[in-house]
Amino acid sequence: MASEAERTFQRFAVFGESSSSGTEMNNKNFSKLCKDCGIMDGKTVTSTDVDIVFSKVKAKNARTITFQQFQEAMKELGQKRFKGKSPDEALENIYKLMEGKDPATTGVTVSDRLHSPDSASLSPCCSHLPSSAPMSPTFQ
């Protein structure tokens, strides 16, 4: 049975990656996990730290990490995030931050929604733009 940390890893690994099986995670989703779970706090653990640790644990020419490599990364980030704690305690605290977390979808900008395939139905401000199908006015 998969641990809670492994389930969180899988949820973030497939986020925005339709072809992902959830067994490997790219740097973008690794950073998102660290940010959404509060591992990256902007002070003791920054986005630069997260990128460096990702690069350190991945295979030389790889663009993704496995769950095993992810665990190594969490050990390293745990030591940085929870200074003064034992490595095991720090890792345990990191996993507590991750418990039950899903990729956040809040903060999606309006422009992202305007560029969706059905943007004409979402925003009347785009009705003046040319489209592939003629639009009939819905107002009277």
Automatic annotation (TrEMBL):
Q: Give the family per the record.
A: Belongs to the TPPP family.
Q: Does the keyword Cytoplasm apply?
A: yes
* Keywords, in A-Z order: Cytoplasm
* Record-given protein name: Tubulin polymerization promoting protein family member 2
Annotated localization = Cytoplasm
Highest taxon above the source species: Eukaryota
What's in the GO CC field? cytoplasm; microtubule
The segment annotated Disordered runs over 102-140
Compositionally biased spans, kind Low complexity: 119-133
The terms under GO molecular function for this entry are: tubulin binding
- GO BP terms, alphabetized: microtubule bundle formation; microtubule polymerization; positive regulation of protein polymerization
Where's it mainly located?
cytoplasm
Keyword Cytoplasm on entry: yes
Gene3D superfamilies found in the cross-reference section:
EF-hand
